[in-house]
Amino acid sequence: RGSLCAAPSSEAELSPTQGSAGAQLQPVSGVLGGSVLLSPVLSHSFEVKTAEWYFRGGTGKTIQVAEFGPKGFERPDPHDRFKQRLEMPNATALRIGGLELGDSGIYVVRIKYHSTVEVEDQDFNLSVYDPVPPPLIQTQLLSRSPQGCNVTLRCSLPPTTLAWTSWHLDNTSGTLQGHSGDGQTLFLAIPPDALDATYTCVARSPAEEQSSSVSLRALCQLEGGRQRWAICLGVLAAIAGPLSILCCLRRRRRKADEGGGDLNGDPKKGCGVPRAGGGVPPSDPLRTIYSEVGAGKHSLAQPQA
Ligand SMILES: *[C@@H]1O[C@H](CO)[C@@H](O)[C@H](O)[C@H]1NC(C)=O
Ligand SMILES: *[C@@H]1O[C@H](CO)[C@@H](O)[C@H](O)[C@H]1NC(C)=O
Ligand SMILES: *[C@@H]1O[C@H](CO)[C@@H](O)[C@H](O)[C@H]1NC(C)=O
After folding, report:
1. Could you say which ligand is closest to the alpha carbon of residue 144?
2. Can you tell me the distance from the alpha carbon of 14 to that of 73, in angstroms, rounded to the nearest whole number?
3. Residue nearest to atom 5 of ligand 1 (CA)
4. Between 134 and 197, whose confidence is greater?
5. Closest C-alpha residue for ligand 1 atom 7
6. Domains, the chain, ranges and CATH?
7. Ligand 2 residue neighbourhood (C-beta within 6 Å)
8. pLDDT tens for residues 255-280?
């Protein structure tokens, strides 16, 4: 590679980008169906006269695919493999849309300037990759105690995916113990002060990356949440029981005082038998308890009125 006519060394020093951009194939990655921009770095500030783009694919045959000249953007063969997928946003850069796997190959741009006979070539090596799907995280809560929580996290991709996965830890607020794994599966022993961590699995191809995350707090508190819920129900039941008895006794006393008629106009709202309050189906224990508590408060307030 290199310019067809080597640039004087003084000019090479003036434009340090020329060396890196021009001395070798510039690798470019694209995703199937996406687009890429091949944009040469110009070594001169002269006005560009023409820019010709060439493609050499798997067959090894080189074809000219585009040109920007006095007549603007032109396609020497509009029926080649690129059809309507090429455009030149300016005199030198080439954009390829609707990328296909067969677009992988070497692209060369040959630039001619108005004020110099120098011709400049720049080469790009385009590789088109399949899209990367978001990785799948499977979690398993092994054990949980006030001393922490043991979990395994597994990150996977569909078997045919050409991508690499890795685990990343954000927001560490504690030290992790027993952190091991094969890159896909992690075994974690998490102390309570490290629950705020979020583990992210990143799947990466040369062209793109996708990630999925899991929150340790959500994972480790799944069971704790259920326990707390049960305790909550128990406490409510413990309060509701005595209250309803109290309510019952007061109603009975009130009935005796007033010679019958319940103030609420519901003679059944008296004592004894456990019942579903206020027409709430008995299948819903929480709402039943609430309505009992409510009824109790109501009756307790009555004598002060
Ligand atoms: C041509 O257009 C591309 C994309 O807009 C841009 O990155 C590049 O710098 C432009 N080149 C010149 C010489 O203007
Ligand atoms: C272009 O890049 C691909 C992928 O990195 C590589 O396998 C191939 O060898 C490169 N081609 C050349 C000519 O360097
Ligand atoms: C987690 O696993 C380690 C090692 O097997 C064990 O010593 C620890 O007690 C476990 N922690 C919990 C909370 O179960």
Report:
1. 3
2. 30
3. 89
4. 134
5. 39
6. 4-129 (2.60.40.10), 136-222 (2.60.40.10)
7. 25, 27, 125, 127
8. 666 654 444 444 444 444 444 444 44
- b/e 35-48 (16+ beta carbons within 10 angstroms → b): ebebbbebbbeeeb
Whole-structure pTM over 0.70, yes or no?
Answer: no
Spacing, Cα 178 to ligand 1 middle (Å): 51
Q: Which of 222, 45, 187 is nearest to 120 (CA)?
A: 45
From 147, 149, 150, the mutation candidate for ligand 3 (largest count of ligand atoms within 8 A of CB) is: 150
Structure tokens at 238: 């413990």
How far is the C-alpha of 200 from the C-alpha of 213, rounded, in Å?
4
- Name which of 122, 130, 163 is nearest 2 in CA terms: 122
Strands 177-181 and 164-170: unpaired
Q: Which residues line ligand 3 (CB under 6 A)?
A: 143-145, 147-150, 178, 189
Nearest ligand to the C-alpha atom of residue 109: 1
| Tens of pLDDT, residues 140-174 | 999 998 888 999 999 999 988 889 888 888 754 33
